From TrEMBL:
This is Glu/Leu/Phe/Val dehydrogenase. It comes from Pontibacter ruber. It holds the Pfam family ELFV_dehydrog_N. Belongs to the Glu/Leu/Phe/Val dehydrogenases family. Signal peptide: none annotated. It comes from the Bacteria. InterPro entries: Aminoacid_DH-like_N_sf, Glu/Leu/Phe/Val/Trp_DH, Glu/Leu/Phe/Val/Trp_DH_C, Glu/Leu/Phe/Val/Trp_DH_dimer, Glu/Phe/Leu/Val/Trp_DH_bac/arc, NAD(P)-bd_dom_sf. The lineage of its organism: Bacteria, Pseudomonadati, Bacteroidota, Cytophagia, Cytophagales. The keyword Oxidoreductase applies. Residues 156-364 form the Glutamate/phenylalanine/leucine/valine/L-tryptophan dehydrogenase C-terminal domain. Its EC number is 1.4.1.-. Keywords: NAD, Oxidoreductase. Transmembrane segments: none annotated.
Length: 366
């Protein structure tokens, strides 16, 4: 009995073992000696349409860490597009390097050539460590890029729309947990006040929430704190705060075996992708502790909705209107989770997978 369990739990950490675990269609390793480019493009699923997802530039500790990140992120994009009703598949890319030191026009354009060679199966956009300027460089090499500056006919920075959707998801969670969606007077901690976190703090301040913030960059903390009256806390201290809502808006995996027992909040709702280190472990654990988790790929979909709108003819108002629907979708997911006795992340995944399966069948019949 014990032996069988051990075999079941053994993880295949080989490259193909991981690709097969996440069930990817294609993974492309990109290398260029002259520019120093090292990138991985993950195309998870293209049943609903081309795989759209941003390119992250980050100083990963190892190639294995970069691969795991791109696999998890691209799978998340599949679910995000599916649950948001978009005709898009899921993909994502990572460039290994320090975005403040290692980036150059040549590197971004060389990367653009790799995207071009995928003939539209993958469409890129910005993410952590990349900007609309980088998308301009990629556009010089391929049309398969979105999130271009507004001056170039693009949709510009997706972060305000992402923040708005996250805010909608957070309000829906408040409605479920407290019976009212007002965030006035609620103690809310925001981890990471970069693009999305900054706009989220602005929305929360307008609603008179009591806000706590943390970040790596002290000048950014000072700026946001002064502007919106948010209280600055330490990067590790954030897990021990006595708050109502915790909003992870930095990187993924912050809800894990080490942090979960420290959290005192009733709600987790933030913009970061893959907030749960392992959804099979932390998903049920959060439910057991009575913490309501607003699924990340559902409530942070505003940016994708905005970028998608660019592909079909950009209209900012309709992108915001579609993003507002995240409020109702989030309440639906909470209801499904309750009805089926499952955790909220699983409920959201089920809805996304159901749509992919049913539309896949439509596409396979004439
Ligand atoms: N930008 C979008 O439209 C968008 C859309 C969907 C999801 N997301 C996700 O939301 C998150 C934030 O995105 P962004 O565009 O604001 O990125 P960003 O790089 O502008 O901001 C991230 C911030 O988090 C800080 N940070 C990193 N590690 C930290 C830590 N351990 N503790 C505290 N702060 C830390 C960084 O210093 C930075 O200021 C990311 O996970 C991203 O994938 C963003």
């Amino acid at each position: 009995m014990v032996e069988i369990k051990e075999v079941e739990l053994k993880k295949d950490n080989s490259i193909f073992g991981q690709i097969s675990e996440y069930n990817h269609e294609k993974v492309v390793f990109c290398h260029d000696h002259d520019t120093g480019l090292k990138a991985i493009i993950g195309i998870h699923n293209t049943v609903l349409g081309p795989a759209l997802g941003g390119t992250r530039m980050w100083s990963y500790a190892s190639d294995a860490e970069a691969l795991e990140d791109v696999l998890r992120l691209s799978r998340g994009m599949t679910y995000k597009a599916a649950i948001s009703g978009l005709n898009l598949g899921g993909g994502k890319a990572v460039i290994i390097g320090d975005s403040k030191k290692d980036k150059s026009e040549a590197l971004m354009r060389r990367y653009g050539r790799f995207v071009k060679n995928l003939n539209g199966a993958y469409i890129t956009a910005e993410d952590v460590g990349t900007t609309t300027k980088d998308m301009e460089y990629i556009k010089m090499e391929t049309d398969h890029v979105a999130g271009l500056p507004e001056a170039m006919g693009g949709s510009g920075d997706p972060s305000p729309v992402t923040a708005y959707g996250t805010y909608m998801g957070m309000k829906a969670a408040a409605k479920k947990a407290y019976g009212s969606d007002s965030l006035s007077g609620k103690k809310i901690s925001v981890q990471g006040v970069g693009h999305v976190g900054g706009y989220l703090v602005e929305l929360l301040a307008k609603e008179n929430a009591e806000i706590f913030i943390t970040d790596i960059y002290e000048d950014r903390l000072r700026e946001i704190s002064t502007k919106y009256g948010a209280k600055v806390v330490g990067m590790d201290e954030i897990y021990d705060l006595d708050v109502d809502i915790y909003a992870p808006c930095a990187l993924g995996g912050t809800v894990n075996d080490n942090t979960l027992s420290r959290l005192k909040c009733q709600i987790i709702a933030g913009s970061a992708n893959n907030q749960l280190r392992d959804e099979k472990i932390q998903g049920p654990a959060l439910a057991e502790r009575g913490i309501l988790y607003a699924p990340d790929f559902l409530i942070n979909a505003g940016g994708l909705i905005n970028v998608y709108s660019e592909l079909i003819g950009y209209n900012r108002e309709s992108a915001y209107a579609q993003t507002e629907r995240i409020y109702g979708y989030t309440l639906d997911i909470f209801e499904l989770a309750e009805k089926e006795g499952i955790h909220t992340q699983l409920a959201a995944t089920k809805i996304a997978e159901k749509r992919i399966q049913s539309i896949g069948k439509v596409h396979s019949t004439y």
